[in-house]
Amino acid sequence: MELNEEQRQMQTWVHGFAKDVVRPAAHEWDEREETPWPIIQEAARIGLYSWEFIQNAFSDPTGLTMPLSNEELFWGDAGIGLSIFGSTLAVAGISASGTPQQIMEWVPQCFGTPEKIQLAAFGVSEPDAGSDVSSLKSRAVYDEAKDEWVLNGTKTWITNGGIAAVHVLVLSVVPELGSRGHAAFIVPPGTPGIRQGQKFKKHGIRASHTAEVILEDCRVPGHCLLGGKDRLDERLARAREGKSSKSQAAMATFEATRPAVGSQAVGIARAAYEFALDYAKQRVQFGRPIIENQAIAFKLADMKTRLDAARLLVWRAAWMGRTGKAFENGEGSMSKLFAGETAVHVTDEAIQIMGGYGYVRENPVERWHRDAKIYTIFEGTSEIQRLVIARAISGIHIR
Question: What is the pTM of this model?
Answer without folding.
Answer: 0.93
